[in-house]
Amino acid sequence: MLLSRPIRFGANYVPSAGWFHSWLDPSPDTYRRDFEDLAGIGLDHVRVFPVWPWIQPNRALIRRRGVDDVLALIDVAAEFGLSVAVDLLQGHLSSFDFLPSWVLTWHRRSVFTDRDVRDGIAAYADTLTRAVASRDNVFAVTLGNEVNNLHPANPTTPQESRSWAAELIDVVRAAAPGLLALHSLYDATWYDPGHPFHPADNVDLGDLTTVHSWVFNGVSEIDGPLGPATVTHADYLVELAAATALDPARPVWLQEIGVPLPDVPGADAAEFVRRTLGAVTANPALWGVTWWCSHDLDRSLADYPEREYDLGLFTVDHRPKPAAKELEAVIGEVRRAAGTGRATGTGRIAGTGRIAGTGRIAGAGRAAGGRRALRCPVDLRTQPERRAEVAPGGPFHTEWVRLRQAGPLAVVAGDRADDAPHLRTRGIDVVVTQE
To answer: Which InterPro entries is this protein grouped with (predicted)?
Structure first.
C-alpha cells in the first residue's frame, strides 16, 4: 500500500551557540543563521527541545516568557519554510537529564507514579501544546526525548509507565487534536528484556511509531563502521516496529540517527550516510528521517562525552560537514526518484483520521509488493521478556543482516506470518524462516 506524501527529512535542532542553555538567553538571529543552514540542504522540518524545568520551575508555575520563547523559535523556523515538532519533557539530552527541583532533593518523587507530579506534568503539557498548536508550521508534539532514560532515577513498572504515557498522549490530543501526538523511546525498549517501557507502548501509543538508531549500542562492533549490520541498523529498527504494530499500515518515524565518533570515523561519515539512508528509505513503513543533530557542540562547553561534540551536520561556524553534503545529495535523489519537490506541508491531521499522510512515496526503491520477510520467533508485543533474542549480534539479527544483503527484507512476527491481509498491506509476498 502506497500513500502520497513524500518522506520527510529534518534535523534535531541543537543551536550552534550555547547548546540548549541558549533557552536561557534566546537569540532569534542565531536561529535564523542555523535554520538557513538546514533549509539550504533541503531539510523540511526541525525537532526542538524546550527545557522543561526552565518553563515550569515550580509545579504551580508555568512561565509565560518561557512559552513565548518557544513560539518565537517556531516563528523563525517558518521564515525558512521549516515545520516543527516540539518535545515536551526533556528526559535526556546529550548525556544530561533535566528534572525540575520539585521532583528532587527532599521533594523527591517519581515523575511516573506520583499523582501530584503527574498532574503538574499534565498542566505543563496542556499549556505548551495549546500554545504551539497556534502556529501553522507545527505538526507534532512528542511527550519528551527518550523519556525511558528517566527510569533509573524514577523506578517504574510496565503498567505504570504505560499508564503515564497514555494519560499524557490523551492530554496532548485534547489540547491539539490536529497535531500528531507521539511517544519517544530509545532502543532499550526493543532490546532490553527487563526494561519497563515495552515495544507495545511505542507502537500502540501515539499516532505513529518513533525509533532512535544509534550504532554505538554495540552494532558497530559487529562488522565495523560500514559493515552491513551497522548500515542497516536503522532499517532493522523500522522493521521491528512495523512487525510489532497491530496496524500493518502504521508509519514509523526514524526520529534520531547520527554519525557517532569513534564508532564511525570521520573519513567514513559520508559513506555511512549514503548506505544507511539507501537501506532505510526503501522501507515502505518509513515516515521520515530526522538527523541528530543540526550543529556541533561548542568545545568551550565542558563535561560532555567526547562523541557529543561532533554529531552536527554543521560546525558551530556554519560549515557543512561531509554528512551534511551527503544528506543533501541523498535527499535530492530520493525526491527526484519520487517525482516530488521538497515537502512543505505541516503534516497536520485532516478529516476524521488521525494521520493526514504517512510520508510514504512511490519510487526511490519503496516497493509496494514483492518484499521478502524473515519470520521472527519472538512476538515483541506479547513477549517483551524475550527482547534480547532480537538484539544486535544475536542469531535472529545475524540472519536478518545476512539475508538483507540481497535486498529489502521485512520482519514479520510469528503468528502474523500466516495473516494474508497483514502481509498484503506491508507488501510482503514471501516469508522465510531462520536457518
So the answer is: GH
First to last CA, the chain: 29
- Residue-range definition of the domain harbouring residue 46: 8-338
Residue among 258, 158, 272 nearest 204 (CA)? 158
For residue 306, tell me if it sits in a domain. Answer: yes
Closest CA to 334 of 42, 37, 84, 83: 42
How far is 8 from 219, CA to CA, in rounded Å? 26
Nearest-angstrom CA–CA distance, 282 and 278:
7
Domain stops at, among 314, 338, 362: 338
The reply to whether 165 and 84 lie within a common domain is yes
CATH number at residue 291: 3.20.20.80
CA distance 339 to 189: 36
- Please give the tally of structural domains in the chain: 2
Within a 10 A sphere around the Cβ of 201, how many other Cβ atoms?
21
Give domain status of residue 349, yes or no.
Answer: no
Clarify whether residues 88 and 212 are in a common domain. Answer: yes
**Per-residue pLDDT of the chain in tens (435 residues, 90 and over written 9):** 333 458 999 999 999 999 999 999 999 999 999 999 999 999 999 999 999 999 999 999 999 999 999 999 999 999 999 999 999 998 778 888 889 999 998 888 999 999 999 999 999 999 999 999 999 999 999 999 888 878 667 788 999 999 999 999 999 999 999 999 999 999 999 999 999 999 999 999 999 999 999 999 999 999 999 999 999 999 999 999 999 999 999 999 999 999 999 999 999 999 999 999 999 999 999 999 999 999 999 999 999 999 999 999 999 999 999 999 999 999 999 999 888 776 654 444 433 233 333 333 233 345 456 899 999 999 999 999 999 999 999 999 999 999 999 999 999 998 899 999 999 999 999 999 987
Q: Is the pTM of this model over 0.90?
A: yes
